[in-house]
Amino acid sequence: MKSIDATGNFTHKTALNRSSWRPGHFLARAFLLVLIMLILSINTAYAIPKRMNAIKGTPIIDGKIDEIWSKAETIDVKTKSFTFTTYASPVTAKVKTLWDEDNLYCLAEINDPVLSGTLGHDPWERDSIEFLVDQSMNREEGHHFDEHGGHYRVDALEGTLSGRYEAYELAVRNGTASACSVVTDYGYLVEIAMPWSTLKGKVKPGVMVGFQVAINDDPGKGRRDGIVLWNGEDAWSVAHTWKLGDLRLTDENGLWDIENPDTGDMILLYCLCALAALFIICGQHLFRSRKRVI
């Protein structure tokens, strides 16, 4: 477009062809918004489960820490869950696992400043620790425990065993599960043996099973006010196998690096998202740069 300046000379002004770039500009913004939402959802939809190794060994379930436990890996159970409560429990635990052809064994040292539990209440309302095992490794969203899963709960003060799902019920009926608890100066200690026979799966080095540890905390109110988990923050992991962590049965020569899990799938997803973002930004720049002289 031509115009005359103060000196009487003709000048050219360049005007944006808004009809050519505005639709593209809007479309690019929309795609970027969708991309951001996708990236934010990746951590939830494709969250990498925590993992640990169970080294082969056979301890005695008597409430004493046998020497054989010294070779087992230790995981920290400390993630506060607010699925059913708003109370931030101070309870934490250190848990070890061992295995042999008959059982999966767990040793838990629970730091609980106030031990309590009202007799007659539901067992999960009392101070207790729960171990969930699923040999199906079914990670389909919404999948519940089936005949390959067991849910075992040990009471802090009584040492009694409770739970649910088919593997637990069979183990209790045939007397193959055992557990005990001991009150300590820091809280309580639990040992448990959970039989493979009722999980209906084969065991050998390299086999993976779904695994979760959950702690119920009664801070002296006669009910459960706090929940602390190992894998994730969702207490519904006690019902859904797709929310469990990974436990690998191994000998001492085949250990996972539990601090550096394989993040290949996540890296691929983020790279694809980055390429998509680059493509959209370049397209947006192209739309903006389209001008014409009027």
Topology:
Layout: E1 2-4, E2 10-12, E3 15-16, H1 18-45, E4 51-56, E5 74-77, E6 79-81, E7 92-99, E8 103-111, E9 128-134, E10 149-155, E11 161-164, H2 166-174, E12 178-183, E13 187-195, E14 208-217, E15 226-229, E16 245-250, H3 264-289, E17 291-292
Parallel strand pairs: 4-7, 4-16
Antiparallel strand pairs: 1-2, 3-17, 5-7, 6-15, 7-8, 8-13, 9-10, 9-14, 10-11, 12-13, 14-15, 14-16
Helix pairs in contact: 1-3
Description of the molecule:
21% of the residues lie in helices and 32% in strands. The strands form 3 sheets. Strands 4, 5, 6, 7, 8, 9, 10, 11, 12, 13, 14, 15 and 16 form a 13-stranded mixed beta sheet that branches. A hairpin with an 8-residue loop joins strand 14 and strand 15. The chain is an alpha+beta fold and 294 residues long. Helix 1 packs antiparallel against helix 3 (264-289). It contains 3 helices and 17 strands. The protein has 2 domains: 2-44 and 265-292; 50-250, Immunoglobulin-like (Sandwich), CATH 2.60.40.
Summarize the structure.
It contains three helices and 17 strands.
Helix and strand sequence: EEEHEEEEEEEEHEEEEEHE
Q: Which structural class fits the helix and strand makeup? A: alpha+beta
Number of domains: 2
Question: Number of helical segments?
Answer: 3
Rg to the nearest angstrom? 28 Å
Question: If you average the pLDDT, what whole number results?
Answer: 78
User: DSSP strand (E) fraction?
Assistant: 25-35%
Question: Under CATH, the topology of the largest domain is which?
Answer: Immunoglobulin-like
The first-to-last residue Cα distance is: 4 Å
Q: Name the poorly predicted regions.
A: 14-21
Percent of residues in helices: 10-25%
Number of strands: 17
C-alpha geometry: globular
Largest sheet: 13 strands, mixed
In the CATH hierarchy, the architecture of the largest domain is Sandwich
CATH class of the largest domain: Mainly Beta
